[in-house]
Amino acid sequence: MKETMILKDLNQIKAFAHPLRARLVEAFADAPRTAKQVAEIIGQKPTKLYHHVEALERVGLVRLVRTQKKRGTLEKYYRTVARRFMVDGRLFLTKGNDKEVFGEFRAMFMTMLENTMQEINESISEKLICPGKRETEAILIRKHIRTTQDQVAKLEQKIHTLLDEFTAAREKRGDIEYGLTLVFYPVARNKKRSQ
Fold it and tell me: E strand or H helix at 118, and its extent?
């Protein structure tokens, strides 16, 4: 599995823009799984997922990593082709289909944010988020920083290293699984010239 895959095709971005497919990518990134196993994790019927898994495979986001016979059926295990995905900025330099490209890019962000809100709502309903209890508090940070492109690259690498450290940790009974949505985006360009 590659560390990072650069999305260069609009169809790949469209796949991420679909709420269910985005959740599938997250589930297949953790470990090789069957559509049935992922269905149990995300609370869907397996028959609803097969078409979406095939679509993700078709655009090159997941791949079949092994098959296994079980009780007369063939189980197919899929995994994402990379641990993380980034969008190639050159995709936005195309002419003619700018509205479609930006629309799909916007939809991809909305899908990720909507999936985050859905998880937060479920956590609140299940009383996993309880204000006042440190182990079940949600943390919300919103901040603007001003830095160079080189510093952004260093920050991104540090974040990935830190996240890899925590995702590689062994699970113990009673551990709490946390969700993290990190959106890093430019908001303004400094118009002052250095002297």
Answer: helix 98-125
